[in-house]
Amino acid sequence: MYDVIIIGGGPAGLTAGMYASRAGLKAVLLEALFPGGQLAMATSLENVPGFHEGISGPDFAMQLTEQAMKFGLEIKYDGVTEIDISSDIKKAVTASEVIEGKTIIICAGLSQGKLMVDGEERLTGRGLSNCATCDGTLYKDKITMVAGSGNTAINDVLYLAPLCKKVYLVHRGEKLKGKKDLQEAMFELDNVEVIADSMVSAIHGEDKLEKVTIKGINDHTEKEIDADGLFIAVGTYPSTGFAAGKIELNEKGSIITNSKMETSVEGVFAAGDVRETELKQVITAAADGAVAANSAKQYIIKSRKK
User: Fold this and answer.
1) Which of 86, 96, 140, 176 stands 20 to 30 A from 228 (CA)?
2) Start-to-end Cα distance in the chain
3) Which member of 3, 135, 156, 273 is catalytic?
4) What is the Cα–Cα distance from 193 to 106, expressed in whole angstroms?
């Protein structure tokens, strides 16, 4: 029996594990793939406090992992397929076992929408990114492109435009889906070019992105555009399939919490990008994880007194 079961090994999960273990709780972290979550795809992190020269995502993830394990966090590389939170004893079901705990902290993060073109996996972190706020400064005075039509895509353009020589926005429809005020702010920028009724059909480059092929939706004509960076903003969705119908989610599937990271079910907490939050960054996810671990400990203490 664990005190805390943590689902997800990104910054939120690893920080929650570190704080829980350091507080004397018996904690286990369940991660389907590798430690760090989406950190593993980040070539360089320049906005994490304490690393003035930046640090690669995998290196930062490894440091977080080693630090958490130093305090006794147990890590199992096994994905969670289902949770049972109907009683005081919480259960996380994986492909190989059922793990029981007094509390659960969900830190499963986001799943990114993809372009579904050849080379996408290979060039991720080498010109392809899902986060302009994270990686935009790497493309100062360079040519970038954003694929998408919603608020995220337009905000990415607004973030990149002051940094980059040129920013293209490619989207499939005739009209953008983002908020009107965001569109108006974008259209005032001289170095932004919007390419409507089009999609990214191919990306080119061996060790880094060099060109992007754009294909017209209606006329099917193609053209190549030189680009140093391509930011994919075709949508993200919270990894909450295993929690659907069991805790309160918003219309987008994000977990609703209060400031203590408490969900609608006692003893179940959520932290990081998986929850309803305005800013999705490494530092905010880590802060969420620390708060969630503290709240889990307080919950366990109160439960003992009953």
Assistant:
1) 176
2) 19
3) 135
4) 40
Confidence of residue 304 (pLDDT cuts 50, 70, 90): confident
| Catalytic annotation, pick one of 3, 107, 131, 273 | 131
Is pLDDT above 90 for 279? no
Q: What pLDDT score does 119 carry?
A: 87
Q: Give me 257's structure tokens.
A: 């919490």
Of 298, 300, 294, 280, give the one whose Cα is nearest residue 10: 280
Residue 41: pLDDT over 80: no
User: Two tokens at 69?
Assistant: 């394990």
pLDDT band at 110 (very low <50, low <70, confident <90, very high): confident
- Please give the Cα distance from 253 to 244 (Å, whole number): 8
- Let me know if 134 is a catalytic residue: yes
Q: Which of 107, 134, 164, 288 is catalytic?
A: 134
> CA-CA distance, 93 to 211, in Å (whole number)?
44
Please give the average per-residue pLDDT across 232-254, as a whole number: 89
Tell me phi and psi for residue 158, to 5 degrees.
Answer: -65, -35
Per-residue 3-state assignment (H helix, E strand, C coil) for 173-221: CCCCCCCHHHHHHHHCCCCEEEECCEEEEEEECCCCCCEEEEEECCCCC
Cβ–Cβ under 8 Å, residues 10 and 105: no
Measured between alpha carbons, how far is residue 197 from residues 148, 153, 216 in Å?
11, 15, 6
Give the DSSP letter of residue 161: T
What tens digit of pLDDT does each residue of 177-191 get?
Answer: 999 999 999 999 999
Q: How many residues does the chain have?
A: 306
For residue 177, what are its two tokens? 């889906």
pTM for the structure as a whole: 0.71
